[in-house]
Specification:
Blueprint (H helix, E strand, L loop, with lengths): L1 E8 L2 E8 L4 E5 L4 E2 L3 E7 L6 E6 L2 E6 L15
Antiparallel strand pairs: 1-2, 2-3, 4-5, 5-6, 6-7
Length: 79
């Protein structure tokens, strides 16, 4: 999974993401699911580097714009 950008659209934060399982680039917002089982928990657009917080099987992973999903010491989510 990769996050390409974060934007506020009509007052709602959205992230532009690409999931290999879905093979498309699309926008998501908090509460959406990606690839059927990955939940978008939060979008932080106001930090130095915008971040999207994802959750799968109880594990939370923070992904910054341009960074592929990995967590230190954890198996990357099967997205």
């Amino acid at each position: 999974m990769q996050v390409f950008g974060v934007a506020a659209v009509n007052g709602r934060l959205q992230a532009i993401i690409r999931s290999p399982k879905e093979n498309v680039t699309r926008t998501v917002q908090v509460g959406d699911t990606i690839a059927g089982n990955v939940l978008v928990r939060a979008i932080d657009a106001y930090d130095t580097t915008p971040t999207v917080v994802l959750e799968q099987f109880g594990q939370t992973v923070r992904v910054t714009v341009g960074q592929p999903t990995t967590a230190q010491g954890a198996t990357p989510p099967a997205i």
